[in-house]
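> forwarded from #structure-qc
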């Protein structure tokens, strides 16, 4: 027994089991599960309990890259060209400002505190990156929807693309100033551009294969096709040493624009991505180094502070300049703090190219990642709640029952089975409407038809509340009537929102039980119901969606099992 060494399969089981327990504690403490998985990895890793052998972690590397690839593929699948053009119209300025502010503030801040120019330049390039897996999976966990959620996905993609390009150009600049270029500058720049072009080409090829294959094959075989394509492309990227993250994002974009089944393809991948995500964050947590965090010292603290300042201020001032909503100004930047995979991978490349320069850069990155990966999901959660793009009930996972409560639950289920009197509303008596509200300002009754269309493009509903100057609900616009006007170009030039309104007396109040919403939806065909203040004048607060009510019902019933 003294020579006992845990086999790698035992390590896998240990990590997954620990994450299962972490998920329970995340429910109790109202933490994002991503944070819980990272903390569990940190606990069992070398920094604390040291239960996981380092050599085992290295064998998980292909699975971790596959997990990242799947996340980026799913992110790319959200961007049809139509949606990309719409989002890019107001996000390109935000993205450019955030990238420049982050790069500039980190560079100047580090130089002010005595950091060498080459080291400050590399750290400024790496500061641009935002962890795609952490950010996107938190958004997915909370089922958030809205302009901040959409913009976050766009900015995450742009950040990582910009980080890769800036890192390569920054390294070229350092080699040029130090006289270390072994080949002409134009050839080095050409190699960088060829690497990026090759990565994009592989992504397009993979996306076409998936779209074509899923159109031919039975849906039961899609998962095999997806895994085969992803793993093969990942291997090709590694062999050619081109950035695989860009490949899989482009692959997702290609599928989004060449397949009618992108949502079903995403559903198939969910069967695999959930498990891979748990393993990704658990192993990633074991790699977090508390000693590196403490050893980063003053420069590490400067890097953390100025990176946060750059992300937030860049978005804030650009959104203010372009007159975007207060939610975009104040909360979009907070969704971009997480940092991990891309920065760590590039810092490792820096060490392999120039150990003297790369090692202190890697130490600061590894040290700061401990903080960014823990606070990043928390800031995302806070931002989503403040913008109303996720209902409160969605972000608060209620704790499991005590043993005695579970005994009563078993008895209740038995009585329901015998008498057949189980009602959906009974499962939801503990949930109120204010925990299911998705905030919206509605459409003003004087809005032009083009403004109505713009509102609809940012919404996933088919029923839209219309308000007056006092934010009172005067009615709703329903999609069938709207679609009739859209095809009449002459009429659409004259139409205002109030011309499209259908009267409705169906509203909810914040203190109403969710069972009341369930009852109303049984008698309504609309997919959402306006929620107004309880006191006069009844001002619009947001809407409750039928899908959120159903999701809350399913969640409550599962907790009773």
């Amino acid at each position: 027994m003294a020579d006992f060494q845990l086999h790698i399969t035992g390590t896998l089981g240990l990590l997954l089991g620990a994450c299962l327990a972490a998920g329970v504690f995340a429910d109790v403490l109202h933490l994002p599960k991503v944070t819980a998985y990272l903390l569990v990895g940190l606990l069992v890793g070398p920094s604390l309990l040291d239960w996981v052998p380092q050599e085992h972690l290295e064998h998980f590397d292909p699975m971790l890259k596959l997990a990242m690839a799947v996340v980026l593929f799913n992110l790319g699948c959200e961007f049809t060209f139509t949606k990309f053009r719409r989002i890019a119209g107001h996000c390109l300025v935000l993205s450019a400002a955030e990238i420049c502010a982050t790069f500039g503030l980190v560079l100047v801040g580090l130089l002010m505190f005595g950091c060498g120019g080459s080291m400050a330049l590399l750290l400024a390039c790496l500061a641009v990156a935002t962890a795609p897996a952490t950010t996107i999976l938190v958004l997915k966990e909370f089922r958030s929807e809205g302009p901040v959620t959409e913009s976050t996905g766009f900015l995450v993609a742009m950040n990582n693309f910009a980080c890769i390009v800036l890192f390569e150009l920054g390294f070229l600049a350092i080699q040029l100033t130090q006289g270390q270029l072994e080949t002409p500058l134009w050839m080095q720049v050409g190699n960088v551009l060829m690497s990026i072009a090759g990565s994009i080409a592989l992504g397009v090829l993979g996306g076409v294969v998936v779209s074509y294959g899923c159109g031919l094959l039975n849906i039961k075989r899609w998962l095999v096709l997806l895994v085969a394509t992803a793993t093969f492309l990942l291997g090709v990227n590694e062999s050619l040493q081109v950035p695989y993250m860009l490949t899989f994002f482009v692959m997702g974009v290609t599928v989004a624009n060449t397949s009618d089944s992108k949502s079903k393809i995403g559903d198939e991948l969910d069967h695999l991505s959930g498990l891979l995500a748990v393993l990704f964050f658990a192993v990633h947590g074991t790699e977090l180094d508390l000693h590196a965090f403490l050893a980063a010292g003053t420069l590490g603290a400067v890097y953390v502070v100025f990176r946060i300042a750059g992300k937030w201020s860049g978005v804030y001032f650009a959104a203010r300049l372009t007159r975007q909503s207060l939610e975009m100004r104040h909360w979009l930047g907070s969704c971009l703090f997480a940092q991990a995979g891309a920065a760590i991978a590039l810092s490792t490349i820096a060490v392999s190219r120039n150990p003297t320069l790369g090692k202190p850069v890697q130490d600061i990155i590894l040290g700061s990642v401990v903080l960014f990966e823990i606070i990043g999901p928390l800031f995302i959660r806070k931002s989503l709640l403040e913008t109303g793009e996720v209902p409160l009930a969605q972000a608060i996972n209620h704790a499991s029952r005590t043993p005695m409560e579970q005994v009563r639950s078993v008895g209740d289920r038995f009585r329901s089975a015998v008498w057949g009197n189980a009602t959906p509303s009974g499962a939801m008596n503990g949930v109120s409407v204010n925990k299911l509200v998705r905030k919206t300002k509605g459409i003003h009754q004087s809005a032009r038809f083009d403004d109505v269309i713009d509102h609809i493009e940012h919404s996933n509903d088919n029923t839209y509340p219309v308000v007056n100057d006092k934010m009172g609900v005067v009615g709703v616009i329903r999609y069938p009537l709207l679609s009739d006007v859209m095809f009449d170009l002459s009429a659409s030039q004259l139409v205002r929102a109030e011309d499209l309104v259908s009267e409705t007396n169906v509203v909810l109040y914040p203190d109403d039980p969710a069972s009341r919403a369930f009852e109303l939806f049984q008698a309504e065909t609309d997919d959402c119901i306006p929620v107004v203040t309880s006191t006069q004048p009844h001002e619009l607060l947001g809407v409750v969606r039928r899908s959120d009510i159903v999701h809350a019902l399913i969640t409550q019933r599962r907790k009773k099992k």
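QC bot note: Strands lie at 438-439, 443-444, 463-467, 473-478, 528-532, 540-545. The chain has two domains: 8-398, 427-560.
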